[in-house]
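Researcher: I'd like a structural prediction for the single chain below. Treat it as a standalone chain; there are no partners to consider.
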Amino acid sequence: MKEYDLYIVPTPIGNLGDITLRAIEVLKAVDIIACEDMRVTQKLLNHYEIKTKCVSYHKFNEKERLNFFKEQLTQGKKIALVSDAGTPLFCDPGAVLVEELRKENYTITSLAGANAVATFLSQNAREGEDFYFAGFLPKSDTQIENILQKYKETNLVFYESPNRLNNTLEVIKKARNNPQVSIGRELTKIFEEITAGSAEEVINHFKTNPLKGEIVGMVFAKKQKHDIEIFDEKIKKLKNKNFSAKDISIILSELYGAGKNEIYKRVLDI
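Model: Treating it as a single chain, here is the predicted structure.
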């Protein structure tokens, strides 16, 4: 198996059993584990009897640690980068290190593994596969409103803290006229919960259910309304090719996401 200088290693977002066999192998094999909070990482290492040395690496010392890590690499040592939970560089430190090492042609690889966004989205049925990940939303209501407006036609996924969620939901409710939202908390843990509905319904739910733990949320994309008349030319062309009204409604509905019944009625009117 090919060896790399830096391994980006996802760690469980809650359930310790979610770590991969390869992640365990890599964490045992490298010389140094760069981690956000040594206390948090040590719990995981102890659970899997991993004895590798840990070195703190967080957003306040990212640049300071660069020379140390490069010095270790020049000595032929291998490094694993982990965050407290999930995949590094998803709202977690690592970008500075990865960017610098790539510039100097060190070899880097990422392991597959736990990620809160993917875990959350896999439990939420939605139209289309596209989404925008905003990370942690800004503190300013105006900035949140701007993001909501900019991505109103795209599913908007975000992280939020428990103490700010209610206010954020109120901003979402006002800015997007009470849209559909989904909130996931304590993913993969005993008290995991996915709550979906209108912003107002979710706000009311959390008034009687205290918020705790890590939170991932989504504001569903605003459903686009089609002006049925824009299909007139396409309908005429398909009718000239002897397609039936039923076939035309199915074809245009599949291609453009408009309602079949609405298109069918328009075909009959033309």
